[in-house]
Specification:
Elements (H helix, E strand, L loop, with lengths): L1 H34 L1 H9 L20 H20 L15 H6 L10 H65 L1
Helix pairs in contact: 1-2, 1-5, 3-5
Length: 182
């Protein structure tokens, strides 16, 4: 969730840098108009840049990658089931050692289990625990893969943002220099 929040902040930052760049271009046109009559005529006949529509609440909503969204939704769905089955989170039941015949009959009997009922019950319990571990590891794997994809996308966004900011910085210095010359 924190990674998604950071992605939203990066998206807003990138939009603000784009707006600053557009404002800087507009100010350079005004400087050219002030500097000479010829610059004013060129700016008058130049095509106007398309105005961007005002965004809702300042910026469009940021969407995390689908892999991360799916992993987060799956994780939230399994969270209650996980808490109920986790040995440290569930209430400890001291009757685990007393296996009733109904428990054994209701459980799936396989040929691989030993004939001894207590040993069979322990094997079944181990299998159940292994299944729970497998489910948890699968959930963690999906979250990790989603996080990896989101981080790669945000890394690309940061690279793009860095290039834009560097270009904007150079343009601001040039515009400042032009204003000082006036």
């Amino acid at each position: 969730q924190e990674l998604v929040r950071q992605g939203e902040a990066l998206k807003r930052t990138e939009q603000m840098v784009d707006k600053m760049d557009q404002d800087l271009k507009t100010s350079q046109k005004h400087i050219n108009s002030i500097k000479s009559v010829w610059g004013g005529l060129v700016n008058y006949f130049k095509a106007k840049p398309p105005e961007s529509k005002p965004e809702q609440n300042g910026a469009p909503e940021y969407y995390a990658n689908s892999r991360l969204k799916e992993a987060m939704m799956s994780s939230k769905e399994q969270e209650t089931k996980y808490q109920e089955s986790h040995p440290n989170l569930r209430k400890l039941d001291n009757s685990d050692n007393d296996f009733s015949k109904a428990d054994l009959v209701s459980s799936v009997e396989r040929d691989s289990y030993p004939k001894n009922q207590q040993l069979r019950a322990y094997h079944q319990k181990i299998d159940t625990n292994l299944d729970e571990m497998s489910s948890g590891l699968s959930r963690l794997k999906n979250l990790a893969l989603g996080l990896q994809t989101e981080i790669e996308e945000q890394d690309d966004m940061l690279d793009r943002l860095t290039r834009k900011v560097e270009t904007l910085d150079i343009n601001i210095k040039n515009t400042d220099k032009r204003v000082r010359q006036l």
